[in-house]
């Protein structure tokens, strides 16, 4: 155990609000959906019951439709915008009205495999909720084939260039007055622009005005795009959910059908001109023509190919610290602006899982070592400049600490013995 291990555990404890974890104090003062799934994985390295608690509090806010919201506003904090009043979802506790990439089943599987006996009852209680969420994805958001998002925030890669063409079609000019809070916590130049924010809030207002009706939002909402990242996370999570279901003795043929349908839709998000998977505006059919980390999540779902390998190595070799969230050779690249270039440790962890499973342990180790270097230099920041490892965004970040404990820290030989 090293000093950094202790610090990482201390961050999880610091951000623990009792059953749920904040991504970081200040900037993100609530429970976030996919952040919580990674927090569970991190907790499982030293407190297995606490890991299950995290997944339980997340799924406890599931909507009757099966949707699991991207933010749960357990205790109102005026330091965050848009808060519960802006979303107006009428849930208790209040929640946002959109979702986030469904990585929870994948993380639940990792947590469960770390102690199957201790986790069996917890998993059995969680399973029907995960199943309902996956059904919601299949029935509500995969109607065009690949997984569709109705707000850039649903992708978890909020302002990546993938969404620029969809956002261009959103008229943010009539949004009411509001005050952002994020730019009071971190350097505004690292955050999305005012024009982006006007559009983000306009999409939220549409959802609120139609009572968060799924069908209206998908059919008529201001924004609808296929997201490669969410598609691959979902495809992978279907597989993990099926493994969990089988372990519990359930019939998982329906999950397998959802996965097969999703896999057969992948050609729709393959852009031959780009030589990669690509986001697509479902209102117009147009490709984004942007290479980003969403495409590389294909490896997590076992959907890589040699053309994608070429793109991966091109963008990775252009930087020094991990895989950049957007193409360093594209004009939209910005090495410190959130999802328009920076390296995100938790995303590197997902990509490395994919590399290992696809027989590329060498790539997984390179990615781990580069990520380890960033964290050793600066600690557990939200994200990093991939060119010089400069720390960016919020400090003491939950999922960065979690993936240190689970993946990024170098494991001495003594800890490797007996490891699978
Ligand atoms: C930002 C990120 C998103 C994350 C959230 C909380 O919105 O883009 O992926 O879940 O912050 O950390």
Automatic annotation (TrEMBL):
Database matches in InterPro entries: 6-hairpin_glycosidase_sf (IPR008928), 6hp_glycosidase-like_sf (IPR012341), Glycoside_hydrolase_63 (IPR004888), MGH1-like_GH (IPR054491)
UniProt GO molecular function: Glc3Man9GlcNAc2 oligosaccharide glucosidase activity
Record has S-adenosyl-L-methionine as a keyword: no
Record's keyword terms, sorted: Glycosidase, Hydrolase
Domain Mannosylglycerate hydrolase MGH1-like glycoside hydrolase: from-to ranges: 28-400
Domain of life where this protein originates: Bacteria
Protein's GO biological process: oligosaccharide metabolic process; protein N-linked glycosylation
Family: Belongs to the glycosyl hydrolase 63 family.
Protein name: Mannosylglycerate hydrolase MGH1-like glycoside hydrolase domain-containing protein
Species lineage: Bacteria, Pseudomonadati, Pseudomonadota, Alphaproteobacteria, Rhodobacterales
